[in-house]
Amino acid sequence: SQEVVSEESEEESSGVNLMEFSDEILLHILSYVPCTDLVLNVRRTCRKLAMLCLDKSLTHTVLLQKDYKVNKDKVKQLMRDIGKEIYQLNMAGCYWLPSSTIDHVTRCKNLVKLNLSGCHVTSLRLSKMLSTLQHLRSLAIDVNPGFDASQLSSECKATLSRVLELKQTLYTPSYGVVPCCTSLEKLLLYFEILDRSREGFMLSGQLMVGESNVPHYQNLRIFYARLAPGYVNQEVVRLYLAVLSDRTPENLHAFLISAPGSFAETGATKNLLDSMARNVRLDALQLPKAWINGSGLLQHLKFNNPFYFSFSRCTLSGGHLIQRVINGGKDLKSLTSLNLSGCVHCLAPESLFRKAEDDIDSSILESLVVSCCNLRHLNLSAAHHHSSESIGNHLCQLLSRLKHLLSLALPVCSITDVAASVEKPPTAPNLVPQTFGRKVRIGIQTYPRNLADQANQKIESSVFWALMGSLRFLETLEIIGSSFSSAMPRNEPAIRNSLPPCVRAQSVGDSEVAAISQLTYLQSLTLAQLPNILTGSGLVNIGLQCQHLRTLSLANLGMMGKVVYMSALMDMLKHCKCLRDLRLEQPYFCAGAQFFQALSHCSSLQRLCIVSRSGTLQSDAVMSFMANCLEVIMCHMFMGESLTVCKNLQQSIVRSFQAERPALNVVIFPLLHEDLTEVIRDVPMRHLDEITLFKSRVAEEPPNLWW
């Protein structure tokens, strides 16, 4: 209170008093403050704020999903003070809260939407809670081993019968609460079931006899299923689809299944797709590649006003894409999100006799750009999209017409100028093989660090520079090598060897990275397998110009035997005041005192992940960093250190900071250790999915799929 009074005195002396602003302006300012701070702290400062902090516009929706400082006591007090005023409550990913915290949600009698994904909820607690929430219409929960639907009370089932939207993450073979939700209009299923138990026993995808209740899909409008790797997930999702194959809902307008690897089509799924082709008109579509490849399905499906398509990893040719999906350029102004990741022939007229490295057909891309002029999210990664020498037909030049783009993913080889890609590499570093061989001492060319100096060189005339200049409102950018694969794939041992980069990508380096600094509103940046990084000078420009950057992921830049961009990275980090998530994947990375001292300038940093084969770390530097950066709640490091060093450091961090940071999650482990997969399975899904595992996230799923 004394601090507030002194601040008000200073404001009055300077002629500005915050309390003199209108209520509308103050409410807008307060909307950026976490609800727990508003209710438990800010409203106690003065009478006016006490009234405003309880305004319905601030208490109607309570978001706790990334409030890492919230604990059980704060949640209890929050529910006690404003529970009856809350209509939407999001606690997704609050893995650190004990299961008893859920009991306090019963105070929110008027809840309409509730998200408990990632929270510890037993069958009995769920039953008790839902029995009191008669107005609930939207629910998100996890189904863990031990879940028993028979423990749900009749009052709970009555609530579930009125739920219209359900998001269910499965960690065990089960129908969960789906059979109880007889009015479902939106169903989102995330299958995270492992093939083996912790004891090493193989799991079965067959459901228990008592759980064989038939799901009710008659009102379903949106069906979405995302599968983690593993055959059990495929077995279980087929059981969910079996009912759909018998009778396809008439109002179904979005059907999406995201499945890695091979997910074979069966007679039941074929019947389902045939029924969809006859009876429904879709607005969003995503299918496993085996269901599309070699079939005429797309020719028969009907679309209404499509807003999302994903043909990730399909062998769909550009000719089929234009004819069967884009419909010759008609009726695609509604499309806002398109995922063609890994669709290697999507920009070629046919795929039968084409090599993946052949030049694209610019007319196909031009048709795509003209037809889908309102695209906001576009993913073209994991493929070789090589432009021809035709003037004005470069991929970057055509994409520059998409003025509404907010997120974009491209392969490295697609952004190079054609003339530059066929020239002889100018410096010796380009000739060094991209392998884990002996370190080679070579001269490093000095590159200018000033953005204006670089602009005076060739980069202003490059097609990529022009593309970045035309997409000024881009928020997410991914530039990923077409042959890049992370050293940490899921559910498998760490990859020991990486494929060399595409020949066309050999010239992509510091100047292209510098071009990215034109994106003033950039919030998320991923760069992977850029072979011609010599100093990393472009990173400094990004740090200076992209002041809204919140997520940064760098992987395998420059030579593989040496981290050539370390100095530039440390300079960059000194300017990243808004950075919250940092992921670094680079062999031989040295996480020492200088690196962590530079990283300490990132005052907003919350999550750090370092993946480095043969990488080293300094324990004292890590401890000092954790002590200085009070917001850090996740520290994952998979390096080349011994198991003893890793365990000792992990225990020290937990022992020193867990009490002050309830959400703290620390995993420090040797990258090539045989038990790595067992360690990974204990990482909270929020961190694992958002930062620890590398993947392209642009157009990964439809926008606004869940609130």
Q: What does it look like?
A:
The strands form two sheets. The protein has a 20-stranded parallel beta sheet, sandwiched between helices. It has a two-stranded parallel ribbon with strand order 18-20. It contains 26 helices and 22 strands. Among the domains are: 406-415 and 462-486 and 499-579, Leucine-rich repeat, LRR (right-handed beta-alpha superhelix) (Alpha-Beta Horseshoe); 584-706, no CATH class. The chain has 707 residues and is α/β, with parallel strands linked by helices. The chain is globular and about 65 Å long. Strand 21 (634-639), helix 24 (643-657) and strand 22 form a beta-alpha-beta unit. Helix 21 (566-573) packs parallel to helix 22. Helix content is 30%, strand content 15%. It holds the Pfam family LRR_FBXL18. One of its GO terms (cellular component) is SCF ubiquitin ligase complex. It comes from Piprites chloris (Wing-barred manakin). Residues 23-64 form the F-box domain. InterPro entries: F-box-like_dom_sf, F-box_dom, FBXL18_F-box, FBXL18_LRR, LRR_dom_sf.
